[in-house]
TrEMBL record, chain A:
The keyword Transport applies. This is Glycerol-3-phosphate ABC transporter ATPase. InterPro entries: AAA+_ATPase, ABC_transporter-like_ATP-bd, ABC_transporter-like_CS, ABC_transpr_MalK-like, ABC_transpr_MalK/UgpC-like, Mo/tungstate-bd_C_term_dom, NA-bd_OB-fold, P-loop_NTPase. Keywords: ATP-binding, Nucleotide-binding, Sugar transport, Transport.
Automatic annotation (TrEMBL), chain B:
GO terms for cellular component: plasma membrane. This is Sorbitol ABC transporter membrane protein /mannitol ABC transporter membrane protein. It comes from Aquamicrobium defluvii. The chain crosses the membrane at residues 12-37, 68-94, 106-123, 155-178, 199-228, 248-281. Belongs to the binding-protein-dependent transport system permease family. It is a multi-pass membrane protein. InterPro entries: MetI-like, MetI-like_sf.
Amino acid sequence: MGSIKLDGLKKAFGSQTVIPDANLEIADGEFVVFVGPSGCGKSTLLRLIAGLEEPTDGRILIDGRDVTHAAPARRKLAMVFQSYALYPHMSVYQNIAFPLKMAGEKADVIRVRVQEVATSLDLLPYLERRPRALSGGQRQRVAIGRAIIRQPAGFLFDEPLSNLDAALRVSMRTEISELHRRLRSTMIYVTHDQVEAMTMADRIAVMNAGRIEQFDTPLELYRRPANMFVAGFIGSPKMNFIEGARAREYDARTIGIRPEAIDWSIDSGKWRGRVERVEHLGAETVVHLSLDTADILTFRTPLDERLVAGRTIHVSPREDSIYRFDGEGRAIPGPKRNP
Amino acid sequence: MSGYRMKRAARLALAPSVALLIVGMIVPLATTLWLSFRYYNLMNPALGGFAGLSNYEFFLTDPAFAQAIVNTILLVGGVLAITVAGGILLGLLFDQPMWGRGMARLLVIAPFFVMPTVSALVWKNMLMHPGYGIFAWVAMKLGLSPVEWLSNHPLLSIILIVAWQWLPFATLIFLTALQSLDHEQQEAARMDGAGPLDRLVYIILPHLGRAITVVILMETIFILAIFAEIFVTTSGGPGYASTNLPYLIYVQALMQFDVGAASAGAIIAVVLANIVAIFAIRLAGRNLTA
Ligand SMILES: Nc1ncnc2c1ncn2[C@@H]1O[C@H](COP(=O)(O)OP(=O)(O)O)[C@@H](O)[C@H]1O
Ligand SMILES: [Mg+2]
């Protein structure tokens, strides 16, 4: 009903290769998030799947059918764009009805379907309005309505929440997750926000410079990052990376320690350092510590009045939570790591 | 500054240009109006005095008048049809990414800089001439007999010449409008199953609504007053086959020397042009504010 497979997919714009070689298997009904820094090729990969870009090489299979060169409308996928891309001269009703109209559906069928969709998205009072007369959240829902009306096999979202304010973003996030629970169709969701990725995804594809670095569940990415890029990208604040003698002690080029896996004390600990900056977030405090080398260590801890800038304290990483990486940045499996 | 004083200052600043406009427009208009009620024929200076409505009657009942009105409408309508349709097509073409697009865009506006008289002469002698025109040469190469454009299809020839002059303007306006069309909208339409024709009808043309209004408005105003092209090619003939309203007024005044009747014709032309303008501006007002 909506499994998607990418097989050696490659995309180059002229001489610039944006996606060198993407391989991915997405199961039917899965909520997959593509996450990565801006410009890493997430949109390009999504547009290749949508059929809006022609791949340079490789194959795309939907439900086992090769759709590499099929027209976008033939892939039974619907897309929600970052700008929503609503048709400005059409009413909300006409916007939502457009895909059915293009499919040659009868007028009374269209009317019934639009009513259903509008009801489920709380858009009934706005059907006669133009998109311009709607709020950001309502426009977003119209875009979703236009996507679900065709009952597609899969949905593609390209940073759909980035134009909304923070409060609305959180509630729309819940709404999209709710939509996925209700429809049970495959969804691919692109974002650069790792919190969005972690909270919504069944599985996350972490991308970097056009490559899929790791494809796994949110918890696995957090627990067992395949390399330094993934380790650094997932989790906030970022994982601390330390090189040199401290890393050699663990038989690694680099060791990684999450800010939440560090204990501190005033007078005793493994490493000594000076508090540079303290960020009080209310529930917790984020402390930036400079070790006696050039390394900066960030850790989070419950609120404590004794943590003030300039003070010297001691910290100890939890030994079972130390990640080890080799010279290429790949994770070294081994005993000195959290299972 | 208060709103009131601001308004007064704005009026004061506008006053000189408004005054100039009034002098430049009202004086000739008043003179024409005055003359249209007088007997005034250059061939018969003895005739004179108040003519009442007889100049108007003379002009309106002239069989050439009806034909000139029809010709004027055909000319405006024909040129608008060609330039709007052609302009949209060319605009779509030049909006595609292609090699040498900048240069091509520059070339497409070139006809706009050619004076009407010159372009009409070029068309008459280089393109449409049945003896040594390029069209005739192409026709002969294809084994056909050359078309006598200006004598057999005089109005069509004029429509083609004027359309050629205005096509760049339309293309430029449509091209600019197309460039502001959101790319994602077109892609959304593709995802929604809209083919190229559907996208043209449901996405591109509605987006071009304003631009089409502007083109129709501007061109109508200018094409109602076409004169030079007719003057240097067909001289309004054969008969009155390619005479439009401005050309008829010219014929009346300077070939039949009847200044009174010509003035009446001019006043009629002004009234008609204003009726058209009121409709056009209403239409534009609706489209441009929407
Ligand atoms: N149509 C295009 N032509 C040329 N380069 C492009 C095109 N689309 C994207 N790119 C390039 O591909 C890279 C990835 O872009 P994109 O997929 O939009 O990244 P992301 O969505 O992850 O921010 C960027 O370097 C961008 O400049
Ligand atoms: Mg993007």
